[in-house]
Amino acid sequence: MKLYFIGGASGSGKTAIMPEFQKILGSAIKVYDFDDIGVPEGADKKWRQESTEKWLQKLLADGKDACLLGQIVLGEIIACPSAKKLDGINFCLLDVSDFERIQRLKKRNTYGADQNMLNWSAWLRMHHQDPQWAQHVIKDDSWDGLDFSTLSALEHWASTANIEILDTTELDIKQVAVNVSVWIKAEKIIDDDGLEYTIDLSGNSQAQQYVEQKMTEYHELQVGPYKRESFTITVKENGQIIAGLNGNVCGPLCNVWDLWVDEKLQRKKIGKKIMNQCETIAKGQACKMIQLTTSELHSKPFYEKIGYKVLATIPEEFMGHDTYIMRKLL
After folding, report:
1. Number of folded domains in the chain?
2. Same domain, yes or no, for 170 and 209?
3. Do 125 and 257 lie in a common domain?
4. Which of 27, 74, 119, 248 is deepest in the core (most CB within 10 A)?
């Protein structure tokens, strides 16, 4: 049996993701809302802590893989009597920037759009990184059924809980649901020596940056120090982006990753002017060529008109359509 807990202060997206979340997980894992237990008028910290124990009892009695979303706190789970029966704790904290949290709560027109909620979210953020942080917040005036002795002695979470912290500030509901689902479905692998590793598919920005950094370090060992600099070109109308390009420069090569022009503007030579600007950037960085990938659905004729030649064709690579790797020498 595997149990997963998803918590966070109001406005982080816990309740909003439930329909999409359950759809993604299917029938393999049952999803529960913490408030399904019934929220009495004037529910306080003691109610939350006692209800956490009741939920643990239910989930353990059911004996099935399950996920509980809501006002759950990791330190309070550990302090519950039933925590001793858990085979490890998997906890995902949904977080969001202060400004975005307040905007979401105002839009919902419910309680919590105040400094108290921001203080609570800040404490949760620290608590789920440092178990020793301001423990009095959950210990003072607590439910007398809790035992905080394990938490008091805990210096780090690694030996007790598998923790994921997901920033939902820039994510829509479906993206949050997908990220949490991927975290739940992360698998373990065992190597030939019997050592166990976790495959984490969450792909957060810190993980991405770390992998890129380590790959750069490896390449530098082979070819010496080099720079990879990303750039973006946008065209705006009345402050609104109507076209743009993403690319990067690495040594003698300039890569174009994305070129987009609003459909109603595609015959006004805006794309050509953006590519001219891209060439200026590339030449300024002493690049010898620009390379890009496009498909028969997109702009192969456009790129051919401005001097790009096909290096390779990948049949049916993009949704059944041919893809072309194209290059222009500078």
Report:
1. 3
2. no
3. no
4. 74
The amino acid at residue 251 is: G
Taking the C-alpha atoms of residue 185 and residue 150, their distance in angstroms, rounded to an integer, is 28
**For position 181, which CATH number holds?**
3.40.50.300
- Looking at 203, 224, 245, which one is the last position of a domain? 224
From the list 82, 30, 86, the residue with the least C-alpha distance to 57 is 82
Distance CA 132, CA 153 (A): 8
> What distance lies between CA 190 and its chain's CA centroid?
26
Task: Compute, in degrees rounded to 10, the torsion defined by CA atoms 75, 152, 186, 51.
Answer: -20
Shared domain check, 251 and 157: no
Instruction: List the one residue out of 266, 265, 292 whose CA is nearest residue 278.
Output: 292
pLDDT at 202: 52
- Residues of the domain holding 168: 3-185
Any residues with CB less than 8 A from the CB of 246 and at least 6 apart, and which?
A: 230, 231, 232, 256, 257, 258
Residues of the chain with pLDDT under 70: 187-190, 197-206, 298
Q: Residues 56-94: pLDDT tens digits?
A: 999 999 999 999 999 999 999 999 999 999 988 999 999
Of 63, 58, 66, 57, the closest CA to residue 30 belongs to 66
The 8 Å CB, 24+ separation contacts for 110-118 are: 110/10, 111/10, 112/9, 112/10, 112/11, 117/9, 117/10, 117/11
Q: How far apart are CA 138 and CA 116, in angstroms?
A: 15
Which one-letter amino acid corresponds to residue 206?
Q
Asked if residue 303 and residue 199 are part of one domain, the reply reads no
CB 326 within 8 A of CB 310: yes
80 secondary structure, DSSP code: S
Q: Nearest Cα to 30, choosing from 38, 22, 40?
A: 22
